[in-house]
Amino acid sequence: MLRCFFNVKQIRIKMLSSCKMVSWVFFFGAVATKVSPVEKETPIEKLKSELLSVTSSNEWDEKAGFDINENESTVSITVVGASGDLAKKKIFPALFALYYEGCLPKHFTVYGYARSKMTDAELRNMVSKTLTCRIDKRENCGEKMEEFLKRCFYHSGQYDSEENFAQLDKKLKEHEGGKVSNRLFYLSIPPNIFIDAVKCASSSASSGNGWTRVIVEKPFGRDSDSSAALTKALKQYLTEDQIFRIDHYLGKELVENLSVLRFSNLIFEPLWSRQYIRNVQLIFSEDFGTEGRGGYFDHYGIIRDIMQNHLLQILALFAMETPVSLDAEDIRNEKVKVLRSMRPLQLEDVVIGQYKSHSKGGVTYPAYTDDKTVPKDSLTPTFAAAALFIDNARWDGVPFLMKAGKALHNKRAEIRVQFRHVPGNLYNRNFGTDLDQATNELVIRVQPDEAIYLKINNKVPGLGMRLDCSNLNLHYAARYSKEIPDAYERLLLDAIEGERRLFIRSDELDAAWSLFTPVLAELEEKKIMPEYYPYGSRGPVGAHYLAARYNVRWGDLGLDQSA
Ligand SMILES: NC(=O)C1=CN([C@@H]2O[C@H](COP(=O)(O)OP(=O)(O)OC[C@H]3O[C@@H](n4cnc5c(N)ncnc54)[C@H](OP(=O)(O)O)[C@@H]3O)[C@@H](O)[C@H]2O)C=CC1
Ligand SMILES: O=C1O[C@H](COP(=O)(O)O)[C@@H](O)[C@H](O)[C@H]1O
């Protein structure tokens, strides 16, 4: 178990700094010795014994962030908006998965908080029904589930009632039994009630003797001004260190792996610049529409829903310089530098689309505007493609193309890196006139079916000299027997551990909004019409014209073996 709490002579290793150490030791150990998955325990065992040999020093314990006695502290996790979609779909299942894996601290309590009237038993029933997490087919799942549910409670209250939060505080105190109380609030509620809930939680249900942290879900505003206003309001009640702005894409395994890939392999970093990279593509597609979330979506649109946060965060991690260390502030400093080096997106570099109804195989799929919560004349984009540029020495002139859409032909998130053509390639004639077919391309498939593969040119075995394009393929399911945790598991654990690396800092957020705010305003002011595309298609052709303007061909056209 990598990032979980484990006991070493009754001492709990709690902080991520130590977990990070474990990960790095693990990683280097695995690479250096090319171990099979079974042999991977060795470096951890080694680290454990190293830790055992130093834990006699109290000074060292403090530095490493150890709790000398875990019996003296508790963690209470309050899911605010517990009756909602995200809580049921993601938060409770992630908490259970963490419990199952032994990653939650010994003394923890989960509280659901919402206006709906529910008893503890009803909450437990709801949680157990919606528990469709990766754990549910595992050994002893039923037993573990029972144990977990016994630690779940519910309190019904208004989001703007200090009195109701004070009642919650009273209940939390009963569970905490006088120990040091650490409290995590997860705001899983619509954004218009964030501030009310934060105000009440901070004034009436903050911890008196431990930490209090608040996870805030997106959207963090809808442009620079509203985002700044939200930050300002949050900071009336919380310090920046208490605010954990979640972007769940940062918790995805392959997004986290980006830094490992770049900074611990000699072969990638030297190529990671305008000198060798022709373009970078960040692609998100879903094969379903906004079903059930039209009301929210129509106010935001795909650029705010996916590009300004998930894809831009990936871009920043992809393009940043080597951070001074793996500490949260060092990484976030580098990400901010990338964002601040970028040109605000121009209207001519954006294509927008909206899905329309389509019938296939006797089934009729709805148009975006068929959703009852969406105005019939809505121009909100459900698809967008954009070309972005980073004006710094490393990336000058390299187009970073983004494409995001709902109701497309597949569900996928990937990063595609297309390298330059080989100068004076001796084998040019083997590729005919289409040199793009010989482009080396590195694909990091974030989901589904996680993989990293590199398209290379290779001689087809035989007496002739025929070349083809083949993949060097790191297919996760084939290589690693362990399941990949859900992003929310990683992020919840980080928030409990106080690790901020995967959460968005306020200056990052400002920089991100300043790239998109002008174009979003222009799209709305000029009432730019989206290009309509059939539900289940590959999206508007405009995306291809945009790419062609920068001599780019989208890599996800289904031509490569792993696509
Ligand atoms: N659902 C998803 O897949 C994702 C959601 N998010 C974000 O997470 C947060 C929660 O999302 P989700 O669970 O879908 O939201 P819901 O719309 O399901 O709302 C959550 C809960 O908040 C309460 N609530 C809803 N509307 C109002 C209102 N107008 N006034 C007061 N209370 C209200 C309801 O509880 P009650 O009536 O019992 O008080 C509801 O169960 C949002 O900020 C969303 O943007 C982010 C990414 C994905
Ligand atoms: O934040 C969001 O993400 C989901 C996609 O998340 P994934 O982990 O399932 O890829 C998206 O459907 C939603 O519109 C958006 O708000």
What overall geometry do the principal axes of the alpha carbons give? Answer: globular
Question: How many helices does DSSP assign?
Answer: 16
Helix fraction? 25-40%
Bound ligands, each once: NADPH dihydro-nicotinamide-adenine-dinucleotide phosphate, ligand LXAUTJHC
Family: Belongs to the glucose-6-phosphate dehydrogenase family.
EC number: 1.1.1.49
Domain Glucose-6-phosphate dehydrogenase NAD-binding: 79-257
Pathway: Carbohydrate degradation; pentose phosphate pathway; D-ribulose 5-phosphate from D-glucose 6-phosphate (oxidative stage): step 1/3
Commentary on this structure:
The chain is of the alpha/beta class. Helices cover 37% and strands 20% of the residues. It has 16 helices and 20 strands. The strands form 4 sheets. The chain has a 9-stranded mixed beta sheet, with helices on both faces. α1 crosses α2. The structure holds NADPH dihydro-nicotinamide-adenine-dinucleotide phosphate (NDP) and the ligand O=C1O[C@H](COP(=O)(O)O)[C@@H](O)[C@H](O)[C@H]1O. NADPH dihydro-nicotinamide-adenine-dinucleotide phosphate (NDP) is lined by residues 81, 83-87, 114-116, 159, 188-191, 193, 217-219, 296. It is an enzyme of class 1 (oxidoreductase). It catalyses: D-glucose 6-phosphate + NADP(+) = 6-phospho-D-glucono-1,5-lactone + NADPH + H(+). This is Glucose-6-phosphate 1-dehydrogenase. Keywords: Carbohydrate metabolism, Glucose metabolism, NADP, Oxidoreductase. Pathway: Carbohydrate degradation; pentose phosphate pathway; D-ribulose 5-phosphate from D-glucose 6-phosphate (oxidative stage): step 1/3.
